[in-house]
Structures are given as C-alpha cells and as structure tokens.
Amino acid sequence: MRIEQQIAESQAICAAATPGPWAVEYDSCGDYELGIDDTPFPMHLIGPKSQTKWDDAEWQREYGHRVSELSDMSGADAELIAHARTELPARNAQLLAVKQAVLELHTATSIYPGEHVTDAMAAQERGDTPIARLCLECSDEHIAEMVDEFEWNSSESGSVDYPCATVRAIEDAP
Ligand SMILES: [Zn+2]
After folding, report:
1. 5 to 1, 8, 78, 90, 119: CA distances (angstroms)
2. Which residues lie closer than 8 Å to 165 by C-beta, 6 or more apart?
3. Which 3 state secondary structure label does DSSP give 145?
4. Of 30, 35, 77, 110, which is most buried with the most CB atoms under 10 A?
5. Contact of 53 with 61, CB cutoff 8 Å
6. Count of CB atoms within 10 A of residue 88's CB?
7. Residue 10 Cα, ligand 1 centroid: separation in angstroms?
8. Confidence band, pLDDT 50/70/90 cuts, at residue 43
9. How many angstroms separate the alpha carbon of residue 80 from the centre of ligand 1?
C-alpha cells in the first residue's frame, strides 16, 4: 500500500475520533481516568480494577459505574490512547512533508540534443523524447555544469539517471 493511502486511512480514523485533547489523570490510589481534557473527569473510566481499593457499591455511588465494569487496561495503554489522537496526525503530516522535501531535492532533468536553450525548448514543444533524464542532485557536480552549458553527452561518467536510488527507495517504501 502506498504511504499516501496509508496516511489517508490513518487520518480518517483520527478525524472520526473526538479531537480532545485527551489526557490521563491519576489519583492517589494509582487508579487512573482516561478522558477529554476540558470536560469533567471521568468521561471514560478505565481501570485498573485489579488494583483499585474501592468496592463496587462505593464506586457506584461515587461515579455511577461498578468497579467490575472497569477494564484491566494498563496506564501505559491509556497514555497511548490519549497521545494517539494528537500525535498520529502530527507524525502523518511530518512524514508527508519529509517525503515531499526529499522528492523536491531529487528532481528529473530532461536532456535534449542541441547546443542552445532554444533547441531544448523546441524539442520539448515538439514532444520529443529526451535523450536522458538525470538526477543532478545525485550526479557529479561537473555534470550539472555540462547540462547548464548544453555540453552533456552520454559517454560522460558521473551521471545518475532519474529516478535515482533515493527516489526509488522513497517511492517503493512499503
Ligand atoms: Zn537523486
């Protein structure tokens, strides 16, 4: 699956969830509550029932839940849920930005035969197939100079074809 598709699916899951901010609050007994930060706790109660000192009746009076209704999810699990709603979209955006930045650095430069910029422009307008497509970022420095001067030829060593290894690695990333 393409990274873009995975990220779109991940973003849809995030967008469907309550925006938050989510938080985990601990009490002095080591019990914790997972909920939305700006609404009165407990919005959602999550155990751990195995550790709580409260009995069912007492808990029911206090919170309207029974202790036995709490899950045994750990505090670490609750922290993960609380962080996921904000961190996952942020990481998704960061990943797309990093991919974009690398691809903008490693672009295709099409080479057409000719000794002047007008030859290249005319070839492009005719829809000619370029004689080479290079990644100048990965090619030796003198290659970019030769391309600028319309002096590039295929026998010159130091050229790297586009897509270069960097672009292929990013595009093929699972
Ligand atoms: Zn490259």
Report:
1. 7, 5, 27, 16, 40
2. 138
3. helix
4. 35
5. no
6. 16
7. 29
8. very low
9. 37
Whole-number Å distance, alpha carbon 172 to ligand 1 midpoint, is: 14
- Cα(137) to ligand 1 centroid in Å equals 5
Burial class (CB in 10 A: 0-12, 13-18, 19+), 118: exposed
User: Tens digits of per-residue pLDDT, 126-154?
Assistant: 999 999 999 999 999 999 999 999 899 88
Distance 64 CA to ligand 1 centre (A): 61
Tell me, what's the pLDDT at 9?
95
Which residues crowd ion ligand 1, with CB under 5 Å?
A: 106, 135, 137-138, 164, 166
If you measure from the C-alpha of residue 170 to the centroid of ligand 1, how many angstroms do you get, rounded to a whole number? 11
pTM of the model: 0.71
Ligand 1 centroid to residue 140 C-alpha, Å: 11
Cα(108) to centroid of ligand 1, in Å? 9
